[in-house]
Amino acid sequence: MNISLTKLGLPALCLSVLLAGCSSAPVDETTSTIEDTTVQTASVEMEAETAPAMVEEIEEPTNNAATVFYFEFDKAILSDETRAALVEHAQFMMDYPTTIRLEGHADERGTREYNMALGERRANAVKEFLVLQSVSPGLIEVISYGEERAAAYGSNDDAWGLNRRVELK
Amino acid sequence: MLQKSIFLNRSVKIFLLSSILAIAPATAWGELVIRVTQGNDKPTIVAIPPMVMAGAQLSEDISSIVESDLERSGLFKVVPRNNMLSFPSDADDVYFRDWRLLGSEYLLVGAVTKDDDLIELSFSLLNVNAQNTVFKHSVRGTENQLRDLAHMASDKVYEEITGIRGAFSTRLAYVTADQVDGNFVYKLNVSDSDGARERLMLESSEPIMSPAWAPSGDELAYVSFETGRPAIWRQSLVTAARKQLTNFRGLNGAPAWSPDGKKLAMVLSKDGNPEIYILDLTSNKLSRLTRHFAIDTEPTWEPDGKSLLFTSDRGGTPQIYKLTVATKAVQRITFRGNYNARPSLAPDGRTLVVVHRESGVFHIATLDLKTRRMVELTETRLDESPTVAPNGAMVIYATKQGDRGVLSAVSLDAGIKYSLPAKSGDVREPAWSPFLR
Given 3.30.230.10, 3.40.50.10070, 3.30.450.20, 3.30.365.10, which CATH number is that of B41-162? Predict the structure, then answer.
């Protein structure tokens, strides 16, 4: 589906949303520039192909690595893109120690309490990776919202792909 | 890294209720409206002429409440009021042949009288073919309790004809979610089992989840994120007083009252990952029951209170396991399919109701623990949160209609279906009360 849409030359916005929602490929590549928590809004302003973009007017130290990381159904495995972004976060946190909150989410499929556990497992996978990169566990708070706080609405693969996520705040 | 603003705009409102039995005059129907979509092939036909009070106007149409109760069960069909030749209120005024001509097998007649502040509903069930009175009964209450009196009459008729205790006088708890001006609004509501007399228990800008009835029927436990993190609370339906029970790091979820109401099973991940715990509500002592790196969640009690059923993905996919409280021994229960979760037991202690995935579609299914036979009860796509009526006749569950969460009901033999579409918002997580009183 993604391939045929690419041929149609759809705008970057649609493409990025579709890619992010694709359940069979690593999904966070096109959303790696998001620096706010609102997934859809941030996607609109970014181009599909950009690697982590740098905002130029630096007043205080900022870190522009992706802050939303996506997962497969019923899985908590970090994609290569997620790992790359987390390495950047870890580096930033070493230079500028600050507390962060990792919010784990699931798509609407499956039961609500199981999805709470799944959201936590995903957020913990991110936390463990950061700790392996020498970030102090004391700086990281993990919370799961399960399927209670959808980023995208609709009962389809695209929306589900956007909802299986961990948000770093 | 945005650390701030998470805790802004959080609001919680608690709603004070008068006693659950002394409810404000019913404002007709609540938010839920019921539509029967599939009934029994050979329903019992019953005629229920208007039950009125001489010289006064009642605020509720008792007969039509009983009619909808019985029709909703799928086992009855009512004779339309327009077809009736007379409106008898007493067995002595009944001409049986008129009712036989209308195809009616039973006739329920009754009348309301008032004595000081008490209303009395007297009713008789007549067998039209045998031309005799099956029973005569009366119930009493205040004028605010007309709906309760009507449901009690429904219970009596239902039990007499089907042999199964009626569950019309029970209640439903459920959660609604809405977005108003971009802000989330979560509400915990309690209504009658027919969706009428909806009452708001709690309103919050943060998620509310997993309502669970105390066996006494006068208290709920639930999960609220109002502190910024999930925590388990208990709240009285009589006084609306509430108390926070847990405040652990990580998950605080899936509360389930023990059959004696003295303990609460729950899920906590304070020790690293989700495990099943039991909180003794008298001593506040917490004991850990599971010890596994997998997800263990959604505990539910067996009727004897000696074991729990729960969901675990320790075998690679979510499946149902049984946990003996005394020994902490764990035994796998479900094997068919790669997703079986959220167990609950029907009152027979033998029919297990689960959320079951088959070919990527989530259904409500039953597993007979004796014969091992699994039956899919529902045909929709995203069914979850099944809750069994205390008489074991129906299961109410959450599903999707378009993009909206709605409640639906199905009988345990899958023969009867009705839906409870809400007028607005997203309705989820129904919890059927135990028998009340």
Answer: 3.40.50.10070
> For B403, which of A116, A144, A153 is closest by C-beta distance?
A153
Strands (E), B242-360: 242-244, 252-257, 263-268, 275-280, 286-288, 296-301, 307-312, 319-324, 330-332, 340-345, 351-358
What architecture (CATH level 2) is domain B12-19+170-432? 6 Propeller (2.120)
Given an 8 Å threshold on Cβ–Cβ distance, is A116 in contact with B3? Answer: no
Q: Which residues contact B200 (CB under 8 A, 6 or more apart)?
A: B15, B187, B188, B189
Chain A residues within 8 A of B295 when measuring between CB atoms: 114, 117-118, 121
CB contact residues (below 8 A), chain A span 57-76, against chain B:
63, 67, 74
**Residue A4 touches chain B, beta carbons under 8 Å:** no
Q: How confident is the model over A68-92, as pLDDT tens digits?
A: 999 999 899 999 999 999 999 999 9
Q: What is the pLDDT of residue B36?
A: 65
When computed from its CA atoms, the radius of gyration of chain B, rounded to whole angstroms, is 23
Domain A2-54+63-168 has CATH 3.40.50.970: no
Q: pLDDT per residue over B338-370, tens digit each? A: 999 999 999 999 999 999 998 888 999 999 999
Chain B residues touching A73 at Cβ < 8 A: none
